[in-house]
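This section describes the prediction task in plain terms. A model, or a person checking by hand, is given the sequence of a single protein chain and must write out its three-dimensional structure as a string of tokens. No templates, partner chains or ligands are provided. The sample shown here is typical of the held-out split.
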Amino acid sequence: MKKYILIIFLAILSLYIVFVIVAANGNFSDFGEKGPSGYVFIFEGGKQNAIMRNNELIIDSGAVDFKYNKNYVVFSIDTTYSMKPQEINKSQLKYYLFEVKTNVLKENIKFDEFKMLVKEKSLDDELISTFSSSFYRQ
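The expected answer:
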């Protein structure tokens, strides 16, 4: 009799442990940040960060930064597949600039071209200053 009680106790304890592990994973997993025009930054950590627009993947992995205001959505991606994309030199990233009013996405912009777009569109103060503290040091 004691043997059966012990088996039942161990089975219940095992189920409880599995439940706690599954519940904890659900609470600490990815989160999303919504921007304008249906853009969403999905943070899963490391190289698994993604960008979606209207429930369609734009970037499936490697997203690093995601900033926006009422006129623009700006994000960058790491194409080196680093496990720590936030530590990649900003000049090695590819940049994307979406103009909300014209509904135009400029893709795979190199760092120097992106810096020129920042100046051309006067994004320095309103958006890019929060994009990355190390943006202008590269």
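For orientation: The chain has two helices and eight strands.
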